[in-house]
Design a protein that fits this description.
The protein is of the alpha+beta class. The protein is built from 16 helices and 20 strands.
Length: about 475
């Protein structure tokens, strides 16, 4: 495995952008790095998969292959005011067709903003050279040749996060396209999550033609990587944000409590599997904020040792609503707060409060998931970078009062994409074979009746109330 952290471009309050050319360059570097570490070449590979942050969207020129603007990231909320102009009937229709609440989180309003505010995007739309894609589409197109015959496609899990796909028939909705004024010709073909989309070019970083056979949005990829193939199976991924999903099988469960109805995966011609999802905008990103903006730590892994210096949070609560609050609140008017400060509060208390914030936000969405799915959680499978933080995972067990289980391979998003690719080319024969491969690395059992689950959570809810109505 290899990884590189890319730049976060923050041009204004609520704006988050990425440089797509940097992402393409870094992708090539990590491919080279992973092959080198594994001691293999591209020709040794049977197939590859792609996984990505789902709602982040890019506009590029299909004739030059160059981005027309920076990619607008899923955390970006610049389109909040535009979405408020939609009528209630339009919002209800959007949610019914897409399964998603109307929010700047998703891709459609970002595309609309680019058309209306970027001269380069508007000109490309006029001359027919404009295309939009989530980052899976950008990588697939480039890996398969770009302007020289690149494959322009996405999978159902990524398409289901745009506000533009009909969740029942898995096709771009003419009605939704009209609401957001997005030309269908600018969007990629929707395919399953596990099939051969194309092959890498010989002059690519792989140096040979390899089947690209799996595409899954990151959270759905983690479901596959965790082996969550049965109804009721659930997991929570701890990354920049936190994302908990529960498999609802072939049933589309429409949420009444602020959750997302989404595609879980579709393997080839098999029946589509759906999921309910709870999304938290800022969890691991709060640790990055402590590192980069406040400079309380030099690296993200230092937060555990710092937080261990105090036995509790000292009454300090940190709600990192930098981009508003996602599930189950969906309040884009919220902003981050740190409350309960006294003269005795230290940076260790703030570090502890940041870890607790990750766990309290997870509890909010997991309680909602259990209520709507009818599945009582007795154990939670976890993955993602912060799960290497043993203190945070113990806090999570105490807050939830259930056992937390971490697999041996915590980067399950990459693993899930690999599984989808392997299934498509017959490297693995069935999901049963994939489930048998799961190995548990660690477990955390809750301290019974921990104050974190009672008094602590009550104070957390009070802190959340202080974030609301900050933006008029």
């Amino acid at each position: 495995m290899d990884q590189i952290e890319h730049q976060q471009i923050l041009l204004a309050d609520g704006w988050v952008e990425h440089d797509a050319l940097e992402i393409w360059d870094n992708s090539n570097k990590v491919i080279e790095g992973a092959l080198k570490k594994a001691g293999i070449t591209g020709s040794d590979l049977t197939a590859i998969g792609i996984t990505n942050q789902r709602e982040t969207v890019l506009a590029w020129n299909k004739e030059t292959g160059l981005p027309l603007a920076n990619a607008i990231v899923w955390q970006d909320i610049r389109t909040k005011d535009n979405l408020e102009k939609l009528s209630e009937s339009q919002k209800q229709r959007i949610q019914f067709l897409s399964g998603l609440p109307v929010s700047p989180y998703f891709s459609a309003s970002k595309m609309k903003w680019l058309i209306e505010n970027s001269l380069a995007v508007r000109d490309a739309k006029a001359d027919g050279s404009l295309v939009f894609g989530t980052m899976d589409t950008w990588l697939l197109w480039n890996l398969t040749g770009g302007v020289n015959g690149g494959v322009f496609a996405t999978d159902v899990t990524n398409a289901s996060r745009t506000l533009l796909m009909d969740i029942e028939n898995l096709a771009w909705s003419e009605e939704l396209l009209e609401i957001f004024n997005i030309p269908k010709s600018t969007l990629p073909t929707i395919k399953s999550s596990s099939e051969i989309y194309g092959h890498t070019k010989k002059d690519s970083v792989f140096g040979s033609e390899i089947a690209i056979a799996g595409i899954l949005g990151d959270q759905q990829a983690a479901m596959v990587g965790q082996g969550c193939f049965e109804v009721g199976d659930s997991k929570c991924t701890y990354g920049t944000g936190n994302f908990a999903l529960v498999n609802t099988g072939t049933q589309i469960v429409r949420s009444e409590n602020g959750l997302l109805t989404t595609v879980c995966y579709k393997f080839g011609t098999e029946a589509t599997k759906y999921a309910l999802e709870g999304s938290v905008a800022v969890t691991g990103a709060a640790v990055q904020w402590l590192r980069d903006q406040l400079e309380l730590i030099k690296s993200a892994d230092e937060i555990e040792e710092l937080a261990k210096k105090v036995p509790d949070n000292g009454g300090v609560y940190f709600v990192p609503a930098f981009s508003g609050l996602f599930a189950p609140h969906w309040r884009s008017d919220a902003r981050g707060v740190i409350v309960g400060l006294t003269r005795s509060a230290t940076k260790a208390h703030l570090a502890r409060a940041a870890l607790e914030a990750i766990c309290y936000q997870s509890r909010e969405i997991l309680v909602a998931l259990a209520a709507e799915s009818g599945v009582q959680l007795k154990q939670l499978r976890v993955d993602g970078g912060i799960t290497n933080n043993n203190l945070c995972m113990q806090i999570q067990a105490d807050v939830l009062q259930i056992e937390i289980v971490r697999p041996q391979i915590v980067e399950t998003t990459a693993l899930g994409a690999a599984y989808a690719a392997g299934l498509a080319v017959g490297y693995w024969k069935s999901t049963d074979e994939l489930k048998a491969k799961s190995v548990i690395a660690n477990k955390w059992s809750p301290v019974k009746d921990s104050k974190l689950a009672t008094q602590g959570f009550k104070q957390w809810e009070k802190a959340v109330s202080k974030t609301l109505n900050w933006i008029d």
